[in-house]
Write a sequence for this structure.
């Protein structure tokens, strides 16, 4: 997938656990793991907004586009 999820980086910067993050965002820890591991196929804007609010960051801090065609 060409979209890399950087939730783990932002959590580490804030020394926040997955459980604490999940609770504050309103997700299950399992769903946070799906996002962190890049297995999610979609993210609702409301969820992205909640993640940005909790982490006090911008969507671009959590998501990165990598052009797979250029790296191949």
């Amino acid at each position: 997938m060409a979209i890399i999820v950087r939730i783990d980086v932002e959590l580490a910067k804030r020394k926040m656990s997955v459980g604490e993050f999940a609770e504050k965002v309103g997700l299950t820890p399992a769903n946070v793991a799906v996002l962190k591991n890049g297995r999610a196929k979609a993210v609702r804007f409301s969820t992205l907004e909640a993640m940005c609010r909790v982490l006090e960051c911008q969507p671009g801090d959590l998501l990165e586009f990598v052009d797979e065609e250029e790296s191949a």
